[in-house]
Specification:
Helix 12 links the parallel strand 9 (about 320-325) and strand 10 (about 355-360). The protein contains 16 helices and 13 strands. The protein has a 6-stranded parallel β-sheet with strand order 2-1-3-4-5-6, with helices on both faces. A 5-stranded parallel β-sheet has the order 8-7-9-10-11, with helices on both faces. Helix 2 runs antiparallel to helix 15 (about 420-450). The longest helix has about 30 residues, at about 420-450. The radius of gyration is 22 Å and the shape is globular. It is of the alpha/beta class.
């Protein structure tokens, strides 16, 4: 797949540079695959520079790589400010990097942008989530002061209204402050530093340092300490930046994909028109507990971030985004699956692409419901015919994966460099990860850890990590191949590797090699 994509990109002269949020598959692998779908080479810093889980990346080395080794003729840059400033998402949640050093690194990034005037330059950052990184009390307390027993108390405090409005809330906040002591002070100091760094990034964009900036609120509902941070950031952006240059929205892991999609659309000279169809009436009002806005607000924000526009049902569309929400009744479910299947059978060349964002995971623990839509689409011979699919973790993560995939297909076809094998690889990765792993394999891994008396799965070490990695491979291999055979039988397995990218049970890393039969 990659040689084909590289050949197409060399013929077109299209190369993008991406500095991802960290080294996980969803943040690093998927942006590269998006480019491959459209025949555009996406180049990232060498993986060792990105760090791994609790080991931060190397901002100084990445900045040096950008100056000296990144392709000088790249047409677009998409850069994580968390990686440039702190060394990644996890590193952004702990002390260590001063404001002065953070500002210097952002100024260095802006100087790089000034030396690349012909390229588009978008950056994305995160508004710190409420919960610190959850790891057991192992290793250096100086590196992870919020680990172990402090974690649940910090999470509870951060999720209280700010300030608490009722006497019970005020009393609980006071008790937690007394319990946490200096640890709470350190946590609040990190939050304040991260907010100030985000404000500095906005200011840099307002002064012309970056073409576009997107700040994603990581894992936080409508109540908590982040509300004041969001208010301060939005006030600054509204005053100093035009709407098209800055946005602040739910999400984090999907932002590189969204901005790569926008760059692909711009390269193809297209503004994708997106129509949204929900699985039931009122579906847009559904809520994700890890996001501060309802589903429809998150969807609308991501459509804009991807360089697209939302259109109504009566207007022509390039992409129809089908969004399944929880509590979809049996009749609505059948009609929804039938509508998707009918869309995939349309033969009109002008017919819009079909993207599916399955939010069934919001019904936590109901794995049968989470598999239902995929099983329905397989039964209707539509699972392999849709143009994009995702179903993982949060609304923003899911929509911010499915919609960029569809845009990459659209851009690739407009550019004449669409790669069918790269497209099938991306889609199969999502089915195998989102359905086979998360609804079948991961629950078994968690049950095995619980049975072994390991209650904390956030950081696995030694023999435990090796055993869980082996079990993951043994379980996911046949489950993934079974899905593969049902969804994309026109491709055979030319290589299927499985690993745990980080030492925890939360995600898997999959590498597929597809060969046409």
């Amino acid at each position: 797949m990659l040689p084909i994509a590289a050949l197409a990109s060399s013929l077109l002269g299209l190369t993008f540079v991406v500095v991802p949020l960290d080294d996980r598959p969803v943040t690093a692998q998927l942006p590269r695959l998006l480019g491959a779908i459209a025949g555009v080479q996406v180049v990232e810093p060498p993986r060792p520079l990105l760090g791994r889980f609790l080991t931060p990346g190397d901002p100084a080395a990445i900045l040096r790589w950008l100056r000296e080794d990144a392709p000088p003729d790249a047409g677009a840059y998409v850069v994580s400010t968390d990686m440039i400033v702190y060394g990644g998402l996890v590193a952004s949640r702990v002390p260590g990097v001063s404001r002065a050093l953070a500002y210097t690194r952002l100024n260095d990034l802006a100087a790089l942008r000034a030396a690349r005037p012909g390229a588009s330059f978008a950056v994305f950052g995160t508004v710190m989530r409420l919960a610190p990184t959850g790891v057991p009390a192992r290793g250096s307390a100086a590196e992870f002061p919020f680990a172990g027993d402090a974690w649940p108390a910090l999470q509870e405090y951060a999720n209280l209204p700010d300030p608490p409005q009722r006497e019970a809330g005020r009393a609980r906040a006071q008790a937690l402050r007394a319990q946490l002591g200096a640890v709470l002070d350190d946590y609040l100091a990190v939050r304040a530093r991260d907010r100030d760094v985000d404000l500095f990034a906005l200011r840099t964009a307002a002064e012309g340092g970056f073409d576009r900036i997107v700040l994603g609120q990581d894992d936080a509902g409508p109540v908590g300490l982040h509300v004041r941070d969001l208010a301060a950031l939005r006030a600054f952006a509204a005053r100093w930046l035009p709407p098209g240059a800055a946005s602040i929205e739910p999400g984090a892991d999907e932002l590189a994909m969204a901005l790569v999609a926008a760059a692909l659309a711009r390269q193809a000279h297209v503004t994708p028109r997106v129509r949204v169809v929900y699985s039931r009436a009122g579906g847009g009002a559904a809520a994700d507990p890890l996001e501060f806005a309802p589903v429809a607000t998150t969807v609308a924000a991501l459509i804009r971030t991807c360089g697209s526009v939302e259109v109504s049902g009566s207007e022509p569309a390039d992409i129809v985004l089908y969004v399944k929400v929880p509590a979809t009744g049996e009749g609505d479910e059948r009609a929804f699956a039938a509508a998707i299947a009918a869309a995939t059978r349309a033969t009109d060349a002008a017919h819009p692409l079909t993207a599916v964002a399955d939010l069934s995971f919001l019904a936590e623990g109901d794995y049968a419901q989470q598999r239902q839509l995929t099983e329905d689409l397989i039964a209707r011979d539509a699972a392999g015919r849709i143009d994009a699919f995702a179903s993982w973790n949060t609304v923003a993560n899911t929509v911010g994966t499915a919609l960029p995939e569809a845009i990459a297909v659209l851009a690739g076809k407009r550019l004449g460099s669409y790669d069918r094998r790269a497209h099938a690889t991306f889609t199969l990765l999502r089915y195998i990860d989102d359905i086979a792993f998360h609804t079948a394999v991961r629950p078994r891994l968690i049950a095995g850890l619980d049975a072994a008396g390991i209650a904390d799965h956030t950081y696995l070490t030694g023999d435990t990590a090796a055993r869980v990695g082996s079990e993951n491979r043994a379980l996911l291999w046949p489950a993934g191949l079974a899905l593969w055979a049902q969804i994309a039988p026109e491709f055979r397995d030319a290589g299927f590797t499985i690993a745990l990218p980080w030492d925890r049970s939360f995600e898997t890393e999959i590498d597929l090699r597809l060969q046409p039969r």
